Structures are given as C-alpha cells and as structure tokens.
C-alpha cells in the first residue's frame, strides 16, 4: 500500500477481508482450495471442520457471496469450487504500489 | 492455500485479517505506509480520515496490537511507523502453497 486508499476502495477491501476473517471460513476455503479440481462437496466439509451442517453452509454462503467460491447443486449435495485468482487479487491489493 | 489450514493457524490469521477488515484502518495503514519513511504523526492522520481523534487513536491501537504499526511518543504527539514485511506476510499466507 504505497498510495493512500480511497474511501470506496477501502470499503470494498474491508468487506472482502471480513468474509475471510473467520477461522472456520479460512479452513473451509483452504480445504476446498486443496481438493482435487479445487472443488469439494459440502458433505465432505462437515467432518473436518467439526461444526454443524447449517453452520458450515452459512460460512460457505458468506465465502460464495464474497466471490471466493461458486456453488453448484448435483443431486442431494451442493459442491463448492474455488474461483481462481480471487485470493491472489486480495493478496495483491495488500501489497500494491 | 494449497494445504488445509490447521485450526491454530486459521485462528491466528483470522485475528490479523479482522484487524485489517475495517475501511478506516485500511485507509490509516495506507496513509502511514505511503508517508515519508513510512511514518506519520497522529496529528496528520485525523483530517484525511475525517474521524475524531479518539476514534483514530483506537484504530491505530488495533493496528499496533496486530503488529502492523509501531508507536513512539515525541513531545505532545504519537508517531506511527509501518512494520516492514507484515502486510507481505499476510499476503503470502493467503496464496501460500
């Protein structure tokens, strides 16, 4: 951050960082990101996180609304896939010129 | 994030991201980071942010406790200096292998 951030840019970045700033969401995102094809079924995310399905689904919704994940329904289950480049964009903003 | 994050690492990263996830704090950090010698007097931060001195001081305290800034008192005023590398560390964690 070698230039002062404008108010609108700061507000947008703060919303994105708030979506990330939760231990369960960071763990969920890291599990999806490290899964085959960067995709995971919600059914495979509940046990490793150790939270209830509604809570896991809430966190996944926050990450989806913030643009980190996309959701698709197949049969009974929802699958979440990492949106390529989103974490890199946030990372780049923090150290931008 | 190509490996699932451990709970302790996720908790630590979440605390750091929470400290950043506020528009006023992002703006303050960007102003300090872009000042000469990456240092600014609190007296020069109040006007650009448009918040009261106690509010600005509170935000600077959060950023200091999170390790982004150091504080030194000279005469009447406190000066805040960017801790080199802290933003880069957060940035690297988000896109780590």
Per DSSP E runs of 2 or more residues, the count of β-strands of chain A stands at 3
Number of discrete helical segments of chain A: 5
* Biggest sheet: strand arrangement of chain A: 1-3-2
Radius of gyration of chain A (CA) equals: 15 Å
The chain pair with the largest interface is:
A-B, 33 and 33 residues
Secondary-structure-derived class of chain A? alpha+beta
Kindly report the oligomeric state of this protein: homodimer
Shape by Cα distribution of chain A: elongated
Runs of chain A in which pLDDT lies below 50 for 5 or more consecutive residues are: none
Per DSSP, what share of the residues of chain A sits in E-state strands of 2 or more residues? 15-25%
Average pLDDT, all residues of chain A = 94
How many domains make up the coordinates of chain A? 1
- Written as H for each helix and E for each strand, in order along the chain, the element string of chain A is HHEHHEEH
Q: CATH class of chain A, anyone?
A: Mainly Alpha
What is the CATH homology-level superfamily of chain A? Answer: Winged helix-like DNA-binding domain superfamily/Winged helix DNA-binding domain
Task: Indicate the CATH topology of chain A.
Answer: Arc Repressor Mutant, subunit A
The major sheet of chain A is characterized as: 3 strands, antiparallel
